[in-house]
Design goal:
Elements lengths: L3 H6 L1 H9 L5 H35 L7 H34 L19 E6 L12 H7 L5 H8 L8 H20 L3 E4 L3 E2 L1 H7 L11 E2 L4 E3 L3 H8 L4 E3 L5 E10 L18 E11 L3 H21 L4 E5 L11 E9 L4 E12 L1 H6 L2 E3 L6 E3 L1 E10 L3 H7 L7 E2 L13 E2 L5
Parallel strand pairs: 2-7, 6-12
Antiparallel strand pairs: 1-9, 3-5, 4-5, 7-8, 8-14, 9-10, 10-11, 11-14, 12-13, 15-16
Helix pairs in contact: 3-4, 8-9
């Protein structure tokens, strides 16, 4: 959420900045007009309330002859106040909805563009493997090693669900354990969180009001299934007033995640790429309200995820996401994409975002500065630690051998009992 006073005082800059995300300038004007109208109704309601109180207080000291007129006038003012309150409620709801739909300002350094075609490759790391045998995709590798029950689970749970077993199930958990150890070594607090949420945290995080069709809702309980631990962690400290000494707060959140993927029909839906339920270890940071400080943590989160892909010995590229593709909450965003041999391209494994104070304003998460004593909204950042089973796709395909077995990178071997190879041919 944005600061309406800043918008009113810096209208031209706001229009230019949000225009880089495709947000229409006329909506900025509409928001300001609604805000001014809201203030007008607040003032008139306050004036009527004060007049009604004055009349009520004057009844006791009035003469018997004066009282009927004062009572009648008080009643008339009361009816006007009631009507004004009804108008105020409507205009407040309109303003609240409009301000919640305002995207965050993008960084001046973010590339401009309308969609993902304008994303910029900042670097490529690792060599793309060259195989001297016909490569198999991840679905074929699961089949020959008896690592999945994809057809059977679809009968039970529907399309875009998965059931993996034996070595692959252990591999999935081993990767998460390796990432959790890395995050703890970097000072993160490891925390497991629920996958269910009330509605307010979805507004706090920025899922709502933008993407309701992507979220699973349980009407009998008035609860939602979470698509990321970020949703829960962002509201974990809501309405708290922290001290500067409390910051930064680093969370490594592990949870099951649920996404309807309503807009992804026919796109990357084979096998393990886009499934409705998955596991994710999420990096989440709460820091001081200072762009230099949050930029430092943005780079740190990116570095950690690059180390994860390097530990998994996966070739990858770093994309800087353009203004038209980064989404409403984002100030600046990088994506990491690992090489998928069967598709001859890179596919996303991590998304690393600096949100500045956009989320903290929605959660009312603040801290008091040591030097000035001023209260400021925190900055928040997030990045994938690892998400599975999606990460298993490039892992299996890049490390496959001619007999269908999978090589295990040295950094991961301790988490699999020292195994260097998994698969039927390794037994």
């Amino acid at each position: 959420m944005l600061d309406i006073k800043f918008i009113v005082e810096n209208t031209d800059w706001v229009k230019q900045s949000l225009g880089r995300k495709g947000f229409p300038a006329e909506k900025v004007d509409e928001l300001i007009n609604t805000y001014l109208e809201l203030n007008k109704f607040k003032t008139s309601s306050q004036t009527l309330a004060e007049e009604k109180n004055r009349l009520s207080n004057s009844i006791k000291s009035a003469s018997a002859e004066e009282r009927p007129a004062i009572i009648a006038k008080s009643k008339e003012i009361g009816e006007q106040f009631k009507a004004e309150q009804e108008k105020l409620t409507k205009i407040q709801a309109k303003f609240d909805d409009m301000i919640l739909r305002m995207p965050n300002y993008p960084s001046e350094e973010s590339p401009d563009g309308p969609d993902d075609s304008a994303n910029v490759v900042r670097r490529k790391v690792g060599e793309i493997p060259h195989f001297d045998f016909p490569i198999r995709d991840h679905v074929e590798l699961m089949e020959i090693n008896d690592w999945s029950e994809m057809e059977r689970i679809a009968k039970v749970s529907g399309a875009r669900t998965y059931a993996i077993k034996n070595d692959l199930a252990q591999l999935e958990l081993a990767i998460h354990m390796m990432v959790m150890d890395k995050l703890r070594a970097n000072g993160f607090t490891l925390i497991t969180v629920p996958a269910i949420s009330k509605e307010k945290p979805l507004y706090n995080q920025g899922y709502l009001p933008f993407a309701r069709d992507e979220i699973y809702y349980m009407p009998a309980d008035d609860l939602y299934l979470s698509g990321t631990a970020e949703l829960i962690l962002n509201s974990l400290r809501a309405d708290e007033l922290l001290t500067e000494a409390d910051l930064p707060i680093l969370y490594a959140g592990f949870s099951p995640c649920f996404r309807r993927e309503a807009g992804a029909a026919g796109k990357d839906t084979r096998g393990l790429v886009r499934v409705h339920q998955f596991f994710k270890t999420e990096q989440f940071v709460i820091c001081k309200n200072d762009v230099a400080e949050s930029d430092k943590w943005h780079k740190k989160l990116l570095q950690i995820s690059e180390e994860v892909l390097q530990d998994l010995e996966l070739p990858y590229q770093v994309l800087e996401v353009c203004t038209g593709d980064m989404g409403a909450p984002k100030y600046r965003q990088y994506d990491l994409e690992a090489w998928v041999p069967s598709q001859n391209c890179y596919r996303e494994t991590h998304s690393c975002s600096n949100i500045t104070d956009w989320q903290a304003r929605r959660t009312n998460l603040r801290y008091r500065e040591n030097a000035s004593g001023k209260v400021k909204f925190c900055h928040t950042l997030n990045n994938t630690g690892i998400a599975t089973p999606r990460a298993l796709v490039p892992f299996m395909e890049n490390h496959q051998q001619a007999d269908g077995t999978i090589k295990i990178p040295a950094k991961l071997q301790p988490y699999l009992g020292g195994k260097k190879v998994i698969g039927k041919g390794a037994e």
